[in-house]
What does this fold into?
Amino acid sequence: MSQESSQGGIEGRLFIRVRRSGKGRAAVDIHSTRPLSTPRIFTGKTPRQVLSTLPLLYSVCGTAQGCAAVEALEQASGESAPPEILRARRAIVLAEIAREHLWRIELDWSAYLGTAPRKATLTAAADFMDQFRKGLFPNGDMFEPGGGRLNETLDEALEQVENLEDLLRRDIFSQSPEKWLALGTEEQLDYWARGSTLSAAGMLTRVTEEGLSGLGRAEVSGLPLLSVDALEKRFRATDAEAFIEQPTWQGNAMETTAYTRQNNHPLLLNLAKKYDNGLKPRLTARLIELGKIPGRLRSVMHEGEFLTVGCGSSVPGTGISQLEASRGRLIHRVELDEGVVKRYRILAPTEWNFHRHGVLVKGLSAIDAESIEVLRRNTGLLVSAIDPCVGYSLEIS
It folds into this structure.
């Protein structure tokens, strides 16, 4: 039996096969048709040509892709943007994370609960993203090398942050995000969930009642901060292509998700004592990250908090950009020669999280596989929670 996600196209697909292998365990195989060599089409192109083509190739988390690309290209060319432009770009990446989390909650969680997604919430999330971007860059030129035209004031963008806060209060938390983020124990979380009729609360309640809180727990470490020099060494090695296809760090497959970004939050620390990195902590991590975003947007715009985790390169004509996108760490590396691209490489979070020895495979290998129906349900829940950047097909047998 198979199951399909709708997302696909030029970005390829993941084919995930899960079958019962005895003793209630599952055997897992992942095959990817992601065209990881796609960035080769940028060879011989100017930075502006790259930036005009990139949105046609990467529709998912397109803002994060654009931001990583322009930063890497600016570093390689020496055409750096001023700090206020860098802050504004990264604020838009954070707004995209909010939109993606809202969509996943409304589409995926509602589907599991058997309820229709609320079109008003989906529309409001998209409108917030669009208007916030326009509030910062009215001409839409945020990825102009060296910097586009920034709005003279932050008033319009800050108004959109207020709108996002209202949206989260109304459609996600049934209270202010700040108040929800003060929850520190599973008992407090469950009490909140039982008292709300919204999809986020209903999903956590259902997972708890069905005994799925620890589903998919796996011994996989979070991807640490990677130094630019260490990354440069990996990208210049003879096995660089293999690294991009099946990345490891210090010999280990790593995870990079909202869970690994938020796992120091008191509520997640509490949940992890009981469920490790299982399903309930993963779902909660998405809510924690979403609830923090209004405050982080204000911080990025006013105080300069950066979403990057290391940029630059010690090699002339080379640029590396790392930033946190909705689904995990995104890395772009570019080499320029006489003003055009000599080599371009992209390492997306899907390659870490859906590695053949990674968090999904380890989590699925340990789940209950005593029946096809249970296996299908559990597989779908875990894949959705880890969330690939591309469409996927599940084959359950």
Notes: The two ends are 6 Å apart (CA to CA). The longest helix spans residues 83-113. Residues 1-80+226-250+308-397 form one domain.
